[in-house]
Amino acid sequence: MLDVLIIGAGPIGIACALEAKKNNLNYIAVEKGALVNSLYNYPSNMTFFSTSEKLEIDEIPFISNNSKPTKQEALEYYRRVATSNQLNINLFEEVIEVVKKSDYHYQIVTNKQTYNTKNLIVSTGFYDIPNPLNIPGEDLPKVSHYYRDPHYYSMQKLVVVGASNSSVDAALETYRKGADVTMIVRGEQIGERVKYWVRPDIINRIKEGSIKAYFNAELNQIFEDKVTFKDENGKIQTLENDFVLALTGYQPNFSFLEKLGIEINKQQKYIPTYNEETMETNQKGIYLAGVICGGLETHKWFIENSIIHAEKIIKAIKS
Ligand SMILES: Cc1cc2nc3c(=O)[nH]c(=O)nc-3n(C[C@H](O)[C@H](O)[C@H](O)COP(=O)(O)OP(=O)(O)OC[C@H]3O[C@@H](n4cnc5c(N)ncnc54)[C@H](O)[C@@H]3O)c2cc1C
What we know:
Blueprint: E1 2-7, H1 11-22, E2 27-30, H2 37-40, H3 71-84, E3 89-90, E4 95-102, E5 105-110, E6 114-122, E7 143-144, E8 157-161, H4 165-176, E9 180-184, H5 199-207, E10 212-214, E11 218-222, E12 226-230, E13 236-240, E14 243-246, H6 254-259, E15 264-265, E16 271-272, E17 286-288, H7 303-306, H8 308-318
Parallel strand pairs: 1-2, 1-6, 2-3, 6-17, 7-14, 8-9, 8-14, 9-10
Antiparallel strand pairs: 4-5, 5-6, 11-12, 12-13, 15-16
Helix pairs in contact: 1-8
């Protein structure tokens, strides 16, 4: 019987594994994809908004060329934390089902094997389920909820939906690789959380007309060769179009949490129930860590401020 099984080896799952090891617990982390799978799937040229020391686990130095690390540097860092500490992490193994045998005894079924554990940490993040647009044409192959690389969109007519960090980075990068970019934005301006050193760039590109943007606007249908959207006056407009990047955010897997018997406050942004001191949920022996703690408020918890969850949980398990 394991002392603790960790679902997900993102930065916070790795922090939990390291803390469990330091406390001599019998633990394993199970990850459905590659190590730090969400980060691996982030845009190729992304730069973190945090400085590297803020992303450190257990004060293990994170050295980056500039103050804000790149995706490649972060992959390198978290891999070195996992390998240098010989953490028990099983990759490409997905947790399919959790059966409660009793308080502090859970059976975990993956696509490869079955485990028994006294405690379970759910650090499954939020990057697997995109917020849908719920409009006709969304399932066309030209539509993606993930942005990887600008070259693909070169010399193409691209619509970017949204005005958050991801949308702005995608709009600027693709414009600079020769895409004809139009942003469709539901709000009245570029998001206020957009990185302070990027925001003036996008605002000026829009002002000078290099990137077109429609604010207070909503995409309402996607066709093979065009899109239609409602502009700020409620008028339906049509744009010729090759590709759509719908970067409208992501959400945690709430049905997985519900299957575990974890209470979710649907009136309050789907925030799951947990004790802020111990991170234990209403299910004895099941703990939450990382971005998943914020429910639909996926900006509330990020790497910087949720690394601390690892220490809280392992302390609670030990006591
Ligand atoms: C473009 C971008 C830039 C960002 N920049 C910053 C920044 O500068 N600073 C910062 O602090 N935060 C930043 N964030 C947020 C940060 O990346 C997330 O908050 C962070 O990844 C949360 O870590 P996590 O371990 O909780 O979740 P994740 O990193 O999402 O890890 C969860 C893991 O669980 C795995 N998993 C899910 N379901 C299962 C299952 N059933 N079985 C097994 N494994 C499963 C997933 O594959 C994934 O690897 C950024 C996010 C984005 C999208």
